[in-house]
Amino acid sequence: MEKVFHFDSPREKYRADACVITCFDARFDLAVRKFLKRRGVVTFDHVKIPGGVKSLAAPECETDRDCVLRMVRTSMRLHGSERVLIVAHGECGAYPRASMETIIADAMRAAEVLRASEPTLAVECYFADFDGVYRVTAG
Ligand SMILES: [Zn+2]
């Protein structure tokens, strides 16, 4: 093996402040990271998948949901995550021509799926738009 980059990464095991589920849309990376920091979430397990909430709320195949749930459970087991933050976003490629309301409804459905399968988790639901991050609450 040829070393092509030097960087010292921490060896210590960590406890995650949260497990965070987002879409892989890079436009929201900075806003989400700054928002998480503001919420006290600095060290986190990032489940970053195209469409984000869609895999939990309205998966194209049922195995997608199981896969995401498995990732969340792994975060709980390995890094003690007790909190999950779901961040949906505007103009998501997984939701062509869908309204913001449709995406938000799926974000809430995703939160319900998580709460139902892992009742001990504290699940928070958010929507990232191009001007900031909004908390999504039922009703
Ligand atoms: Zn997206």
Concise overview:
The protein has 139 residues and is α/β, with parallel strands linked by helices. It has 4 helices and 5 strands; from the N terminus they run βαβααβαββ.
Rg of Cα set: 16 Å
Query: Which regions contain 5 or more consecutive residues with pLDDT less than 50?
Result: none
Q: What is the residue-averaged pLDDT?
A: 96
Computed structural class: alpha/beta
Shape: globular
Order of helices and strands: EHEHHEHEE
Give the number of helices.
4
- Which molecules are bound in this entry? zinc ion
Report on the biggest sheet.
5 strands, mixed
What is the strand content? 15-25%
- How is the largest sheet built, in terms of strand order? 2-1-3-4-5
Q: What is the terminal separation in angstroms?
A: 56 Å
What is the tally of beta strands?
5
- Measured as a percent range, the helix fraction is 25-40%
